[in-house]
Amino acid sequence: MRAGRLGVGVVGAGRVGPVLGAALANAEHAVVGITAVSESSVDRAEALLPGVPVLETPALVERSELVLLAVPDDQLVGLVQGLADAGIWQPGQLVVHTSPEHGVGILAPAMAAGAIPLAIHPAMAFTGTSVDLARLRDAYCAVTAPSPVLPIAQALVVEMGAEPFVVAEQDRPAYADAVRAAVSFSTAIVDQSAGTLSGIGVEHPGRVLGALVRSAVDNALAAADGQSRL
Questions:
Q1: Are strands 140-144 and 116-122 parallel, antiparallel or unpaired?
Q2: Considering the entire predicted model, what is its pTM?
Q3: Model confidence over 65-77: pLDDT tens digits?
Q4: DSSP 57-108
């Protein structure tokens, strides 16, 4: 491992955590462990991070220089506070969460113990497979952090292969609304169209719609970029 590389602990083996852990491993950081509970999460961790040990959260955090919290939003507050109550957070430790809705305020209990808070959300829909590693190279990540450490968050995103953009603390809820609306709308429209095609006997409606949907979305995204420059 090169000088300046970090020992990374991944909390959460859903669709996001193992992928980001693998991306950091590809940047020559050392993934020291991951938490996983269900059989599917253990399998996902093994597939993307082969040989990385599955650890309990307190032990994992204690071993890590960078802690990646890739857990559902409704678990984040309790997790951060519980580790603070147990005296697990360490001064100088980097703590990153992946929630779209929150900035660094939700990491206040860790900050009080001297940890460095970063919020990084990749703006993409994850499958939890190696396919995401390729998609991450075309993705953008929203980053929120105190000004002195913002370059650290940006550098981590670049190392994972993505492009960082800054979202202010107070703007995270609006950002989350935009991301969720895009995902929900896209999914609903494709499901509706595929269902209609299937109903008239079209085989493989997803394949039929593929080029149409991708070209329509590309055109809409180009128009959106044009509007942002007006």
A1: antiparallel
A2: 0.87
A3: 999 999 999 999 9
A4: HHHHHHH-SEEEE---HHHHHHHHHHHHHTT---TT-EEEE--SS--SGGGH
